[in-house]
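Protocol step 4 of 5: obtain the predicted structure for the target chain.
Materials: sequence only (see below). No template structures provided, no constraints applied. The aim of this step is simply to have a reference model before the mutagenesis design in step 5. Sequence pasted as it appears in the construct record:
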Amino acid sequence: MAATPSDSDPIFARKTTGPSRWCSPAWRISAAALCLASVLWAGSRVRAAGDTWIALAAGRLICERGYFDFPLKDEFSFTFQGEVWTNQNWLSHVIYWWVYDHLCPSALVGLKLALIALVGLATWRSAWLLSGSQPASLLCACVALLFAAPFFDIRPNSLGLVCLASLYWILISLKYRRGWVAWLALPLLTFWGNAHGSFMFGYALIFLFLCTEAGQRALGRRVILTPTRRLAVLLLATVISAAFVAISSPYGLSNFTHPFTIMTGPDRDIFQAIVEWRPPHALFALLPQATAFWVLVGISAVLWIGAALRDRRTQSESPQNEWAGHPVLFDATEIILVTTGLYLGLKHLRFAPYFVLLSLPVTAKMLSSLLGSRTLPAHARATSRGALSTRLLVALTCINVAVAAYFGGARATDLRQAYTPASAEPYTTRLFHRHILHEADPAALVEFAARCGLSGPIYNEWSWGGYVIFHAPQFKVFIDGRAQSLYSAAHCEQYFRLKNDPSRDHEPRVTRGREIDARFARLGIDLVLAPHNPEWASRIVAPLLETAYWHPVIQDERGILLVNGLSSHPATIEFMRSYWAGKLDWPDTWQGWWIRGHAWHNAPEPDCARAVEAYRKAVALGPPQAWLYKRLAECYRRTGHIDEALRYFQQERRRLATMTEPIASDKERVIQCIEVVDRALQLLERPNQ
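Step 4 output (structure tokens):
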């Protein structure tokens, strides 16, 4: 028959007498070392910071306006300006901005580590309540952090994981310990409902918990059941929290309906085109987090099956009355919650940490049963645990040795770079920039454009939109990471089609460039911020440059900024005057010198002599580039300095010939340069042909 927790029932009485080996100094030091290593490891991963910059920009705007003048409509893009932005993460944005502004940027790394520690703490407590074993619960909590490490970053998603782990602890505590924790669901769900869009999963988790507990009670299963009064309190707290969320959220009831447009709406395929929305089986060979998910599923399956077989054998070998009052090992509530996490993880990679946090506390219970005699939860622990304690102590020691060897060996460099990055920046920003992969942001490009007075609509790379709206709000982006909360499916599809459609690659570049320019003209776009990748280079940047009225503003190893020289925007017109005169503060790099040469070469009154000088410096400073030699040959012909040109190209021909044995990736490029130089020499030696 079903049972409910009771301190007076000897079956569920918690053993409190006798010394505990888990309170010894050796255990505490070992446990602390394992926890610290796991938190630091989980927090050392870095990710691109598009969503981080969006969070900071939104938090800054909300703090400037105040809650009662909440900016409901978008102010960062030009394509959807004035449309409602359903910012379900607004409270997380405010928290991140407050820490960034009042403390320092690097304090956000400390916040990330604190959130990871909270997730580990909640998971450990849940596992301890289920397994009755401190070592098993601690090991599984640390393993949870290690497997979920790729999903911890400086984004609202981390707060969502804290809320999920905390709610799971509340449900397990409600079932096995005290009823008052049900009221904790009220502030937790209210906060979660304004901090991250995943809060709907919290309500679904409570619904499944209530339904399964009611079902087990109706079927009379031999399990520990949550008392009816506690379930009623939980239901009441959940209903009140839903009302509080609807009242406190600036978006009212639409805060509850918006997630379904992403998950089940007619345009979900477009919204879910991002990598993290794809299923893990499609990314198994591409992303380590997908591989880690499958490894965890396999480990959990082995432990669960092993625990089931051992439990069955133990009961068959024991007297029938020994287990008469003991709950069964597999509780339907736990199985339903874990299965839900597994289903979501199999469907979308972004939900993989949900399975990690829901399954590992139950796995701790299976591990506890597998390594020792049949054990019950902490409040129903069997009195004999000598064999279990010994085996788990050995397992814990082995894990600690393995972790220490791992961190002291292959990953020591990564950890050192994560927390003591080498840079000339102050530590207050250096640590933050390391954790958000700042080297991938278009910092120099955006800073140069802002310094030159450029502003207005800009066609940008998706992942760079957040950086632009935070650091250069005078620009209005075409798109950014708010695809599911602001931009329409048609808009996202248009963006992807422009740079990913190979069907027109056979057309002349100038034709495609004029078509793109006409499309940009209808939208009022005079600026293009593009990264260095084959799709952008071949389908957008090169075609626009072929039109002869789109020009490079600045280029570095991360990307390039283009401007429309025929723009009617006053700021752009003024900029182009300085551009043609060569008065801009370009960097002293090969990219800076070739852009100087381009400006003098293509000015309304070309200065080919200065262009030759700039192009030659670019060739001397940079890698071999065939297109630079073509520009040099054209400028030399315009100047009429044929003898000087012959000497230069003959010298370059000899220099390139000595580079015929470069690394494989550069060999083809050198060969192309030699071919261009040979053709230039032929034309210069026979100028009349």
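Step 4 remarks: The radius of gyration is 31 Å. The beta strands are 456-460, 475-477, 527-531, 550-555, 559-564.
Proceed to step 5.
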